Amino acid sequence: MRRKLVCMILAMAALFGPASFAATNYHLVKRVTVGGDGGWDYLAVDPETHRVFVSRGTHVLVLDGASGEPVGDIPDTPGVHGIALAADLGKGFISNGRGNSITTFDLKSLKVTGQTPAGENPDAILYDRASHRVFAFNGRSKDATVIDGKTGQSAGTIALPGKPEFAVADGKGHVYVNIEDRNSVVAIDSGSLKATATWDLPGCDSPTGMAMDTASRRLFSVCDGKTMAVTDADSGKQVAKVTIGEGPDAAEFDPRTQLVFSSNGRDGTLTVVRQDNPDRYTVIQSVETERGARTMALDPSNGNVYLVTAKFGERPAPTAENPRPRPPIIAGSFTLLIFAR
Known about the structure:
single chain; mainly beta; four-stranded antiparallel β-sheet
């Protein structure tokens, strides 16, 4: 009987793969009240040092990925949105939404080493290792500023058909960006700096976060309406749609476990999706997080997932000047959430 049971377990593992057993128990392992004032946007993780970079309105807070304790700070980044890390260059890059600029800093010392002008309201930012270029996607001017990652000098500007949101690079000379107000994805050649294709995202309203499985050439766009759209990065064909949580803003893919993640700030959940094959996906877990935990970062070296949030006060009444006011953040309540298997 025991031998039969062992055979059954081995057969199930072969059928479903290790991710279905090892990764269905994502849970909160640490909650750290970081404090401080102001809002936040994107996070980034350095898998070599396990540092977590968190945008905090006017500066970038750097935390230890294990303890959550502050280990550094990068100042003077007005309206900071995103952080891109270039380990091969030993540099990091920050998009300053209110400063219309890109800050370059040293990855080890965290010292600022340069500033480069960008378009209007640079938001998402990424480093493309194939071209050694940095792409900052400008929400208000609806274009992308490109700089040389080695020198910090401008390399060009790419016009886009709408408001860009998050973007990814495949490491082979292609960059992909969600166009939020057009429900589409634009493919860019990172060498020629030309937009080569625009693909619709059927059933995907206001795509925000994006992740990529570079091996199977699949793009994951998270959208309003509790939807994750899966797109073939070569043909632009939509191959799957997955039901996720409400109010997603970030997506991640872990190539070691073949898991896709969506952080959903409106209902306070983390959706964990298993890639059964490149065209088939199964939701295996909906992890309770906290309201407002909408952005996240994945440490690919250990699979840890980081989210941030805060406590909120009562939403003010709408006005003509501000018809959709946000609830105020309670001072000192900013919190880091660490999830692991």
